[in-house]
Amino acid sequence: MSTLVLTLMFIAAGSAQGQDPVIPSVGSPDAGALVFRKCMACHQIGPNAQNGIAPVLNGVVGRPAGQYPNYSYSSANKNSGLVWDERTLAAYLRAPTKVVPGTKMIFSGLKKSQEISDVIAYLKQFEADGKQVSR
Predict the structure, then answer these.
(1) Across the strands, what pairs with 132?
(2) Which of 14, 30, 57 is nearest to 117 (CA)?
(3) Against a cut of 0.70, is the pTM above it?
(4) What is the CB neighbour count within 10 angstroms for residue 41?
């Protein structure tokens, strides 16, 4: 019960400051598919995805950073020691250069926590081979 109270206080404090909290909330994969359109200029996902300007995002949730085959990652990303769990992804999607200084990702970040949660829910649907599974 005290964890719930602390979480609610954190959310209220973030809202009072006019900022979304950084804690991932429950996301909608369908809404995430729409948010992912912002990512499609550089990233691909799905069974026919290929590396391009940026790496394929199949199976990204739970994968160590800088590890997708045949993509030339920045040394900052390869050597970050990060694993793309939901919390790390949420922070990175909000401010990529703050989480991985020296990253090649030039996207300034998503500012709305719900959009971040939605896009993570969308990404979680894709296994490493690109197959989409409902979760």
Answers:
(1) 126
(2) 30
(3) yes
(4) 10
**Residue 135's pLDDT band (cuts 50, 70, 90):** low
- And the tokens for 11? 């959310």
**What CA–CA distance (Å, rounded) separates 27 from 106?**
24
Q: Is the CB of residue 24 less than 8 Å from the CB of residue 116?
A: yes
Measure the CA–CA gap between 56 and 53, rounded to whole angstroms: 10
Question: DSSP letters along the chain, please?
Answer: -HHHHHHHHHHHHHHHTT---SS-----HHHHHHHGGGTTTT---STT---SSS---TT-TTPBTT-STT----HHHHTS--B--HHHHHHHHH-HHHHSTT-S--------HHHHHHHHHHHHTB-TTS-B---
Confidence of residue 22 (pLDDT cuts 50, 70, 90): low
pLDDT in tens, 29-59: 999 999 999 999 999 999 999 999 999 999 9
